Amino acid sequence: MGRTALVTGGTRGIGSAIARTLRDAGYTVAASYHGNDLAAEDFKAATGIPVFKWDVADDEACAAAVAKITTAYGPVEILVNNAGITRDAMLHKLTSEHWRAVIDTDLTACFTMCRTVISPMRERGYGRIINISSINGQKGQLGQTNYAAAKAGLLGFTKALALESAAKGVTVNAIAPGYIETDMVADVPPKVLDSIVAQIPVGRLGQPEEIARAVVFLASDDAGFITGSTLTVNGGQYLI
Ligand code: CAA
Ligand code: NAP
Q1: Looking at residue 240, what is its pLDDT?
Q2: Which CATH number applies to 4-233?
């Protein structure tokens, strides 16, 4: 049995590709989700990867789920903080509720999940933490003050935890995807999405598997000298 990897938000979109690709690379994988039971059941039936339902924004639920996964599959040695949401609106229309929902799910959940696994990783002298940020945390985006703040926050968090963990065999890295073809991007108004794709030098949206392959690399033993880094996978969009 390979090392145990936990992918939050691992039943749809980018997380689903990450979970499958890690499984294909020999890891024992668990995938989490929040509310879409149908997608989770389809994913489980198609892949055989076990799924666990909880809200990553709920501290106690995170601790309980990690304990359950550890009992069933052994300690989590690879944690991919992938679960995320958008609640887009210009700031003058943004509600406190939508600010908090995005900060809680996209940023605070990363703290909670890392806080839950970090001591066992330090004790065993091995761990890989990979945080899924976004190009919009690097460059900002109209309608995303909440999301850009959360995703930029992940980059600082990643660097600080990398420093704390380097001597303990635990690497902590971020991936900043560009626009990837998932349900999340399907919610962008078509006219706006066309204008965004026009600014991507490779001329297309990315595919979830293109992020998954980067995660598998950072999760590998070969990537032990890479920590505190942000790997951008965006078709050159950040250069524009
Ligand atoms: N790029 C360029 N122009 C944009 C834009 C963008 N990302 N977002 C909005 N605009 C423009 C609109 O085209 C519109 O221009 P016109 O007045 O000339 O028509 C103007 O800004 C106002 O937009 P709306 O009329 O749509 O205003 P609204 O208040 O109804 O909605 C909005 C504003 C919520 C920002 C909406 O436009 C929207 O959802 N935009 C997309 C934001 C976006 O890119 N989100 C990314 C989601 S995917 C993701 O987050 C994954 C990731 O990490 C990459
Ligand atoms: P997606 O297709 O909307 O899938 C999101 C996944 O996260 C689903 O499995 C969802 O579960 C889960 N999730 C959402 N909120 C959760 C919560 N509170 N608790 C537990 N699980 C939760 O999204 P995606 O496009 O694959 O994005 C995945 C990650 O990549 C996000 O962090 C996103 O911000 C980031 N990202 C995406 C893009 C892009 O262009 N798509 C670009 C850059 C970064 P349910 O199925 O139950 O809802």
Answers
A1: 85
A2: 3.40.50.720
